[in-house]
Design a protein that fits this description.
Elements: H1 2-31, H2 47-57, H3 68-84, H4 101-123, H5 126-157, H6 163-168, H7 174-177, H8 179-192, H9 204-207, H10 217-242, H11 250-269, H12 275-316
Helix pairs in contact: 1-2, 1-10, 1-11, 2-10, 3-4, 3-10, 4-5, 5-8, 5-12, 8-10, 10-11
Subcellular location: Mitochondrion inner membrane
Pfam families: NADHdh (PF00146)
Catalytic activity: a ubiquinone + NADH + 5 H(+)(in) = a ubiquinol + NAD(+) + 4 H(+)(out)
Length: about 325
Amino acid sequence: MFFLNFLILMGLILISVAFFVLLERKVLGYMQIRKGPFKVGFLGLLQPLSDAIKLFSKESYYIYFGNLLIYYFMPFLGLGVSMNMWVLYPNLFNFISFPLGLLFFIVCSGFLVYGILLSSWASNSSYSLIGCLRSVAQGISYEVCMFLIMFNFIFFFSSFNLTKFFFSQQMNWFILMGYPMFLILYACMLAETNRSPFDFSEGESELVSGFNTEYSSFNFSFIFLSEYTNMIFMSFLLSLMFLGGDYFSLFFFLKVMSVNFGFIWIRGSFPRLRYDKLMMICWKIYLPVTLNFFFIFLNLMIFIYLAPFNLVKLMKN
């Protein structure tokens, strides 16, 4: 039953990815004063189905260069890691229930870089290689800030368990106390998922399609599904950490949807940054701020743990 529950969850996630793509195309269309897809089915609701049939029925061409085994295997690895992160959905009876959820997420998000790195290298294309170098440097840089923010909560809870966010935000949301951390984590998640204005690994205007230039058919579909699955999970995690964390209510999923809508809104509003500006923002702005928050949380927890001992000493005196 646990395995069946997990399979149903995976199916619903893939369906949500399909309709999230439709939502993105419609929102971007209205932002650019056009309608977006509206002909296939009622109001275009069957457009994701037709796109999936088209993608999976296209011919996958055989490349005579590069490492063929890694070339075909890497899209499956990226989608598998993205799906693996969803076992962290914090139910009381989960497919995998362990108290090390944040640690598991840190490990999985570190593996996402390898999918882009090896798929780009195996393509043996100059455009893919440039996109690979950009993506690896960007991912490693922004992972530092993202993990430092998560370490604040690990010190605060003295635990890696994601259910702590549910019990700790019954009366007060963490966004009210740590709004700068929320904004920095949102920007780091944009960079981790290669979304605009941090979409340097793709860079259509200068790199054709970046790291996935040589991919087509079902291989491209798996890369596409992996990216959007990561986006939905990052939105879920951000809502869980800062926006209440009450994952038993419908209101929580509306918050997840609003964070997802923010991804689309930012894509339609901002142009791609310069690469040196991207690195400057990470190392000169985000990292010092997150380090300051890290030391504040560390000192706060030391004060909380030592306060009872100091109080006992004062009472003895």
